[in-house]
C-alpha cells in the first residue's frame, strides 16, 4: 500500500488516497517487507507457499508451529521464531524446531494473546501477513479483527478462501489480480456503527451508508474486465476478496 495526500480529494470524505498492490502476496511476490505470522488454524498449503516466499520474517504463534510442522512434511520451512504462552505447541514440534536452531520464546503474560506477542516481534517497517485468524473460534476471530483496527500498520489476513484487510477513511485504489482472486468480495462495516461507502468497478457498485443492521454488501462480484476497484469510505471497513486455488 502506498498513501498520499491528494489535494484534489482533500475534503472531509477522503483526505488520503491509498493504492493497494498486495495482490502480489498471492503470487508469492514482494515489493516491500512482509512479516508472516502463522496462527493456530488449519493451513492451506498453496497459501503458505506464496506467503512464505513473499515474507522476509516468519513467525509461528504457539500452536501455529504444529500447523506448519504438519503441512510442511519435508520440514523445509524453518520459522525465525515461535512465540506465545506455549500451552499449545506439541513437545515433539518444539523439540524439532529447537534442534534446528529456531528460538522458541515463552511469554506467559495473561493479558495479551499469542498473536499480539508475535506482532510485537515483527519490525515496524514490515507489513504484517496473518495466515489464519478470521475463522475458527469466534472470540479469536473478533480479536484478530480488533488487531486490524488497533494496530496502526498494514495487516493482511489470508484465511481459507478470503484475503482481507482494513480500509481506513479515504480513497482506496485496489489492484485486482483475476488469476489469484476469485469473483466474490465484500465490504463489511465491522467495528464501526456505520460507514458511508462509494465503490467503482464492482458488479453491484454502492453509494450508501452501510451498517450491520442496514445496507450490507456481501457476495458482491469483481468484474473480469476491471484491473482495479476503487472504494471511498469515511470510516474503517473490512474489505474481503475471495482467493482462488493457487497452483
Ligand atoms: N480457533 C481459532 N480461531 C482463530 N484463531 C485462532 C484459533 N486458535 C488460535 N488462534 C490464533 O492463533 C494464536 C495461537 O493460538 P494457540 O491455540 O496456540 O493459543 P491459544 O491459547 O488458543 O491462544 P491465546 O493464548 O493467544 O489466547 C492465537 O493467539 C490466535 O491468534
Ligand atoms: C478480561 C479478561 N478476559 C480474559 C483474559 C484472559 N486472557 C486474555 S489474553 C490471555 C493470554 C492467552 O495466551 C488470557 C489468558 C484476561 N486477562 N482478562
UniProtKB/TrEMBL annotation:
What the entry lists under InterPro entries is as follows: Thi_PPkinase, Thiamin_pyrophosphokinase_euk, Thiamin_PyroPKinase_B1-bd, TPK_B1-bd_sf, TPK_catalytic, TPK_catalytic_sf
Q: What is its EC number?
A: 2.7.6.2
Tell me the GO BP annotations in alphabetical order: thiamine diphosphate biosynthetic process; thiamine metabolic process
Q: Which keywords accompany this UniProt record?
A: ATP-binding, Kinase, Nucleotide-binding, Transferase
Molecular function via GO: ATP binding; kinase activity; thiamine binding; thiamine diphosphokinase activity
Q: Which CDD domains match?
A: TPK
**NCBIfam families the UniProt entry points to:** thi_PPkinase (TIGR01378)
Which reaction is this enzyme known to catalyze?
Answer: thiamine + ATP = thiamine diphosphate + AMP + H(+)
Instruction: Extract the PANTHER family matched here.
Output: THIAMIN PYROPHOSPHOKINASE, THIAMIN PYROPHOSPHOKINASE 1
Q: In which pathway does it act?
A: Cofactor biosynthesis; thiamine diphosphate biosynthesis; thiamine diphosphate from thiamine: step 1/1
Instruction: List, alphabetically, the Pfam families matched.
Output: TPK_B1_binding, TPK_catalytic
This chain belongs to the protein called: Thiamine pyrophosphokinase
- State the similarity comment: Belongs to the thiamine pyrophosphokinase family.
Amino acid at each position: 500500500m502506498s498513501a498520499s495526500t491528494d489535494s484534489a480529494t482533500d475534503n472531509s470524505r477522503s483526505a488520503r488516497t491509498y493504492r493497494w498492490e498486495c495482490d502480489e502476496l498471492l503470487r508469492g511476490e514482494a515489493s516491500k517487507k512482509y512479516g508472516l505470522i502463522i496462527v493456530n488454524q488449519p493451513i492451506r498449503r498453496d497459501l503458505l507457499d506464496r506467503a512464505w516466499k513473499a515474507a522476509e520474517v516468519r513467525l509461528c504463534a504457539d500452536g501455529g508451529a504444529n500447523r506448519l510442522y504438519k503441512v510442511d512434511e519435508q520440514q523445509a520451512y524453518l520459522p525465525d521464531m515461535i512465540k506465545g504462552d506455549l500451552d499449545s505447541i506439541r513437545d515433539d514440534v518444539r523439540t524439532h524446531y529447537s534442534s534446528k536452531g529456531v528460538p522458541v520464546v515463552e511469554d506467559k503474560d495473561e493479558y495479551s494473546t499469542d498473536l499480539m506477542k508475535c506482532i510485537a516481534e515483527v519490525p515496524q517497517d514490515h507489513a504484517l501477513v496473518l495466515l489464519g485468524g478470521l475463522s475458527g473460534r469466534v472470540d479469536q476471530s473478533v480479536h484478530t479483527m480488533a488487531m486490524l483496527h488497533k494496530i496502526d500498520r498494514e495487516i493482511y489476513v489470508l484465511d481459507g478462501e478470503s484475503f482481507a484487510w482494513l480500509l481506513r477513511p479515504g480513497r482506496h485504489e485496489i489492484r485486482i489480480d483475476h488469476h489469484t482472486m476469485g469473483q466474490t468480495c465484500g465490504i463489511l462495516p465491522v467495528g464501526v456503527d456505520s460507514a458511508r461507502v462509494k465503490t467503482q468497478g464492482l458488479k453491484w457498485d454502492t453509494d450508501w451508508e452501510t451498517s450491520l443492521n442496514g445496507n450490507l454488501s456481501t457476495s458482491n462480484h469483481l468484474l473480469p474486465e476491471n484491473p482495479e476497484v476503487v472504494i471511498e469510505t469515511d470510516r474503517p471497513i473490512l474489505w474481503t476478496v475471495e482467493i482462488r486455488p493457487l497452483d
